[in-house]
Amino acid sequence: MKTHSTQTPDAATANVPDDAAKPKAAATDRTFAILELVASASGPLAVKTIGTTLGLPKPTAHRLVNGLIDKGLLARDLETRDVIIGVEAARLAVGILRASLSRAPVRSVLRAVSAELGETCNVGVLDGGDVVYLDRVEVEHWPLRLQFGVGSRVPMHCTAMGKLFLATLPDGMRSRLLASGPFSAQTAHTLTDPDALAAELERIAARGYSLDDEEYVVGVFCVAVPILSSTGRTVAAIAVQAPKVRLSHDRVEQVLPILRRGAEALSAQFG
Amino acid sequence: MKTHSTQTPDAATANVPDDAAKPKAAATDRTFAILELVASASGPLAVKTIGTTLGLPKPTAHRLVNGLIDKGLLARDLETRDVIIGVEAARLAVGILRASLSRAPVRSVLRAVSAELGETCNVGVLDGGDVVYLDRVEVEHWPLRLQFGVGSRVPMHCTAMGKLFLATLPDGMRSRLLASGPFSAQTAHTLTDPDALAAELERIAARGYSLDDEEYVVGVFCVAVPILSSTGRTVAAIAVQAPKVRLSHDRVEQVLPILRRGAEALSAQFG
DNA sequence: TTCAGCGTCTCATTGAGTGAGACGTGACGC
DNA sequence: GCGTCACGTCTCACTCAATGAGACGCTGAA
């Protein structure tokens, strides 16, 4: 195998004190380091900060950052010139998570949950203000299926997963999203009033799971629970959906433990 | 997919026009291309497939793939030696999605406006004498879409957004920019005469919105309104663009209130 | 066995990345 | 208004890491 034995250039005949902290400066490594830094930062980052944090010379930091901006992986904040994540990065991220879920061991988790519940289950994340389905296992061929396959997007305010994400968001972000627009009434049950929605989010946050009682599609009931990262943050969600004749409030307590077990098994997949 | 539009046609350092071919081969670009390819693939990929798909020489493909594997961004399927997404990539993706949350409000608003109008909408800012698109929501059903993806830059003097920015700029800066001509004639309708352009800017400033009647792309009509900061300054703009058969002068009064509502919602995001 | 296809290794070549330094610019503080 | 400062941009010579053709080895199929 020999992982590229070039770990230390000519360690032999090393008369000089080999400075261990002098790794080779690979452009690609640094580029990924920048991307990861911006992705893990709590907010917009100044290029200077990036440079000092990663120990990059000033022009180099700018060159690499601008390269990422050209690719759309990073972007600049409107008012400040700080660096934020770009839209291409979000696209890439969704693809990555989708691909990482298609790996066999994980796939079986969702399948097992779905089999145990006897209903259609899916896994989704929040991207750009709506819910994206990363994976999905269907049990049956009922007519309402397939409108929402893998990769499709559904609104936040009227789906179990979406409301769950909203409920677990930091306060500032939640209020900004709640302020970001009118909420379309998909059905007669859709919560369109911001106050009513806010109250529902409180309930969801308190009890740790989310329901959708015909709020998006008439006759369809959903239950969603969060998938937590190792730091305890909600990074994704797993949900079951079924026609209301088969799944409704009275069965929630029954499906929750099964969903939660699945969520726990999946959480390893998200760091 | 893959906007890749930012080819930087700037030609600033272009020595001679004879070099038609662009043998630009940046290691970082190719690395990201590999990552994206694996992320968007339906299953595990052979290195050979990656190489041929991206046009990489055999050893190069292996080197880059192994580099990504060393970083944990890719991994190998255990039985087949095929390439799959690695756990680090999933971690990175979660971070990206979290970090890109700050864009969500803008996107939500844009999507709502676009849905209501049934046409492609975008948000842009002024940057270095160009209009740069920050975000964009497209409607799928018309073929000539997509020329201008997120991050791409368009001129100021012949686009609805650009003229809007020009019109709302402080006098000194406007005259400086106007003096920086010449203004290329993109179509027969493009305003290239500084005086005519100045008159147009007066009109725009007076009525508070801006139009582009085939001034940049033949057959395309645009309407743009400003997004104001809390201090009343124009910090960005929201625009709708559509083929002229569907959007023209007679529909302006109809789309304006919808655009303005979106602009107002976006303004709130800067409070 | 022979063949074919894929992964690995080598190595001369070169050009992309590098970073010190100079310069431009905008934001404060006084 | 005027220095001051700090960040961003530009330039340019250097050099090191990436490049890719070619040779080689492995494994599995005919």
Task: Explain this structure.
- 2 copies of one chain form a homodimer.
- The first copy, chain A, has 271 residues and is an alpha+beta fold.
- Chain A folds into 2 domains: 27-85, Winged helix-like DNA-binding domain superfamily/Winged helix DNA-binding domain (Arc Repressor Mutant, subunit A); 90-270, GAF domain (Beta-Lactamase).
- The first copy, chain A, has helices at residues 27-40, 47-54, 58-70, 87-101, 104-117, 160-168, 171-178, 194-207, 252-267; strands spanning 74-76, 83-85, 120-127, 130-137, 153-154, 210-213, 220-228, 234-243.
- In chain A, the strands form 2 sheets. The first copy, chain A, has a 6-stranded antiparallel β-sheet with strand order 5-4-3-8-7-6, with helices on both faces. The first copy, chain A, has a two-stranded antiparallel sheet with strand order 1-2.
- In chain A, α5 packs antiparallel against α9.
- The first copy, chain A, starts with 26 loop residues before the first helix and ends with a helix.
- Chains A and B meet through α1, α3, α4, β3 and α7 of A and α1, α3, α4 and α5 of B.
List its salient traits.
homodimer, 271 residues, alpha+beta, Arc Repressor Mutant, subunit A, Beta-Lactamase, 2 domains, two-stranded antiparallel sheet, disordered N terminus
User: Can you summarize the main beta sheet of chain A?
Assistant: 6 strands, antiparallel
**What share of the residues of chain A does DSSP label as strand, in percent?**
15-25%
Give me the number of helical elements of chain A: 9
- CATH architecture classification of the largest domain in chain A: 2-Layer Sandwich
